[in-house]
Amino acid sequence: MPSVPVYNMQGETVGEIELSEAVFGQPLRETLVHQVVVGYLANARQGTVGVKSRAMVSGGGRKPWRQKGTGKARQGSTRAPHWKGGGIVFGPQARSYRQALPVKARRGALRGVLSERVREGTVRVLEQLTLESPRTKDLVGVLDRLQLTDRRTLVVTAEADRSVYLSGRNVPDVEVTPAANLNALAVLRSRSLVLTRDAVAAIEGVLGG
Predict the structure, then answer these.
(1) How far apart are CA 193 and CA 183, in angstroms?
(2) How far, CA to CA in Å, does 15 sit from each of 6, 85, 128, 129, 150?
(3) Where are the domains of the chain?
(4) How does DSSP classify residue 147?
(5) Residues in CB range of 60: below 8 A, 6 or more apart
(6) Is 191 exposed, middle or buried (0-12, 13-18, 19+ CB in 10 A)?
(7) What is the C-alpha to C-alpha distance for residues 71 and 74, in angstroms, rounded to an integer?
(8) 36: nearest Cα among 110, 95, 96, 97
(9) H or E stretch at 18
(10) Distances from the Cα of 196 to the Cαs of 21, 85, 134, 164, 170, in angstroms?
(11) Of 14, 42, 155, 176, which sits most exposed with the smallest number of CB within 10 A?
């Protein structure tokens, strides 16, 4: 069963916590993680690009000239694709890029990347993280005292904490998220994880089953 030190907000070690083997001691299944990450990225695409075909552009209802006798090529509409202002042939249309991500796959990938971060030694557990008011300097001070030199840090709280979120919003490469929104992509984007003790319990309660 993996265990990591517990720190206070001053960066001092105040104890140790044993992490669940079922959550933080699992192997990294790269194929599963890749599948889940591609799904997250695909689901983030809006797919709202689109152009108008000849059926969508306005005008062109009347035949521009009679069929025969003009010496010109026959035309049925001024909105045909080869006319200026005409429709586009085979242009991009709005579509959905959504991929199905089963719950078991999402949770399995998350267990794997969390376990990998523990093996790398980049997980910090805080006894608590409480800020009286939103202040970026206070959160940066906590991260500095935890000796997190790489700012690509994911801070996970047990529940949505407005003060912590607003304090980290302006710090480049620092992301703050509640445990309920934690996912494999967010963990992979960060180099270090900062979890509160309550967040660890919340994560284990969901992924440990």
Answers:
(1) 12
(2) 5, 72, 13, 16, 24
(3) 3-44+99-207, 46-96
(4) T
(5) 54, 77, 78, 79, 80, 83, 86
(6) middle
(7) 9
(8) 110
(9) strand 13-18
(10) 18, 60, 18, 12, 21
(11) 14
> 209 falls in which pLDDT band (50, 70, 90)?
low
Strands 123-126 vs 192-196: parallel, antiparallel or unpaired: parallel
pLDDT at 137: 93
Q: Quick one: CA dihedral 97, 103, 107, 108, positive or negative?
A: negative
Q: Is the pLDDT of residue 177 over 80?
A: yes
Task: Categorize the per-residue pLDDT at 149 as very low, low, confident or very high, splitting at 50, 70 and 90.
Answer: confident
Mean pLDDT of 128-135: 92
What is the average pLDDT across 177-206? 95
Predicted confidence (pLDDT) per residue in 78-87, tens digit: 999 999 999 9
CATH dotted code for 3-44+99-207: 3.40.1370.10
The tokens for 23 are 């959550």
**pLDDT averaged over the chain?**
93
| DSSP-assigned letter for residue 173 | T
Amino acid present at 195: L
Query: Would the pLDDT of 91 be above 80?
Result: yes
Diameter of the chain measured on Cα atoms: 96
* Cα–Cα distances in angstroms (integers) from residue 64 to residues 42, 60, 61, 77, 182, in the given order: 45, 8, 9, 6, 61
